[in-house]
């Protein structure tokens, strides 16, 4: 399984939680995802693109 498929699978599993989150929880989830993007992509910190 490729890293992209792992990310896709993780998002599909988390989607109901993300959709049910209030604005505070949603912001926290987005921060966590941004902070942990390399866990899913395998990129180093130097390879990251800025997330708006």
Q: How would you sum up this structure, described in words?
A:
- It is built from three helices and no strands.
- It has 52 residues and is mainly alpha-helical.
Name the descriptors.
single chain; about 50 residues; mainly alpha; about 70% helix; about 0% strand; flat
Largest sheet: none
The shape is flat
Q: What distance separates the N and C termini?
A: 28 Å
Q: Which spans of ≥5 residues are poorly predicted at pLDDT below 50?
A: none
- The portion of residues forming beta strands comes to under 5%
Number of strands: 0
Estimated structural class: mainly alpha
Integer-rounded radius of gyration: 12 Å
Give the H and E element order.
Answer: HHH
Helix content: 55-70%
Oligomeric state of this protein: single chain
In DSSP terms, counting alpha (H) and pi (I) runs of 4 or more, how many helices? 3
Overall mean pLDDT = 76
SSE blueprint:
Blueprint: H1 3-20, H2 23-35, H3 37-41
Q: What's the short version?
A:
The chain is mainly α and 52 residues long.
